[in-house]
């Protein structure tokens, strides 16, 4: 396994981050694995050197955090792993059970720590931007949570580059803890962040942890292959991909994967790992083979011509994934 610094922070993370959205309650989503099915995959990731794990308080209504926390306690020492979670989306019916207010963030971190069974999380991320809360309130609350020892670093997720720059500048002006990472929507089928967000992150020394690196599995199967259970039940994924332009990108991945004798998932992930500034894509795995293919992608080096072949079919999109 390769290890890199998360942006300009001193935090060392594996080149792949295992996303835990897939582990929790099958009642939440048809494709989510129950605890007994998910634990072996988490254990396998640890055995292959992955030390970086990402979850969120809203995944399976908190069950993802519980499953991940129990597995890490059983299979690793706390100081060996880097645990990331997120807050923003509703976690209850009340008006303060959501968003980035001081009240909700203070309540949310305590609830996440309890579910994880941990004293602190390494990376605490705002899951989206909140227009209803003053930015200074959110950033000061995050700074206070860091100072309390409950969080080591803070990160952000999908938003516009101007919003992220404003947040970074506000933190610097006040001497508050600064975002060290950006978890954004980025893959071969959606590359809009190449315009502003990725150059901003490189300039500011912010680590990039793309979510949906395989476009929720869309890039991992050819145009003619049957849809998976997840794809069939994933309305959000259907809203992001599946246009004819997107399928042209898939065709390019299929062609190169066939020529290389590699699975499509490896080719698509190898391309992403090659992009400047990308630290650790967040990979999902509901089968052991998914995880093994992701790990093997680390050893796949694409040429500049092969990358150009994969990139050629792309057509601009509207901004997607900020909801």
From TrEMBL:
One of its GO terms (molecular function) is oxidoreductase activity. Residues 15-312 form the NADP-dependent oxidoreductase domain. It comes from the Bacteria. One of its GO terms (cellular component) is cytosol. It comes from Dyella japonica DSM 16301. This is Aldo/keto reductase. It holds the Pfam family Aldo_ket_red. The lineage of its organism: Bacteria, Pseudomonadati, Pseudomonadota, Gammaproteobacteria, Lysobacterales. Keywords: Oxidoreductase. Gene3D superfamilies: NADP-dependent oxidoreductase domain.
């Amino acid at each position: 396994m390769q290890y890199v610094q998360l942006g300009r922070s001193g935090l060392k993370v594996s080149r792949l981050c295992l996303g835990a959205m897939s582990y929790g309650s099958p009642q939440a989503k048809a494709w989510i694995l129950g605890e007994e099915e998910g634990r072996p995959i988490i254990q396998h990731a640890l055995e292959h050197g992955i030390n970086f794990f990402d979850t969120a308080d809203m995944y399976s209504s908190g069950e993802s955090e519980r499953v991940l926390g129990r597995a890490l306690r059983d299979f690793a020492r706390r100081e060996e792993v880097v645990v990331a979670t997120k807050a923003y989306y509703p976690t209850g019916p009340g008006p303060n059970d959501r968003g980035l207010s001081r009240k909700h963030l203070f309540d949310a971190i305590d609830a996440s720590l309890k579910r994880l069974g941990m004293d602190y999380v390494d990376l605490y991320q705002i899951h989206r931007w909140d227009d209803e809360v003053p930015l200074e309130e959110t950033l000061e609350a995050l700074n206070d949570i860091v100072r309390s020892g409950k969080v080591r670093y803070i990160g952000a997720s999908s938003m516009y580059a101007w919003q992220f720059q404003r947040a970074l500048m506000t933190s610097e002006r006040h001497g508050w803890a600064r975002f060290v990472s950006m978890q954004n929507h980025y893959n071969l089928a959606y590359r809009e962040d190449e315009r502003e967000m990725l150059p901003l992150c490189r300039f500011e020394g912010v680590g990039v942890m793309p979510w949906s690196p395989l476009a929720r599995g869309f890039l991992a199967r050819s145009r003619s292959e049957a849809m998976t259970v997840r794809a069939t039940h994933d309305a959000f994924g259907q809203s992001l991909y599946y246009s004819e332009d997107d399928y042209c990108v898939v065709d390019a991945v299929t062609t190169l994967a066939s020529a290389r004798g590699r699975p499509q998932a490896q080719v698509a992930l190898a391309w992403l790992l090659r992009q400047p500034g990308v630290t650790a894509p967040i990979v999902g795995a509901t089968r052991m083979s998914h995880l093994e293919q992701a790990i093997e992608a680390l050893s796949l080096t694409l040429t500049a011509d092969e990358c150009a072949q994969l990139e050629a079919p792309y057509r601009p999109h509207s901004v997607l994934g900020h909801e």
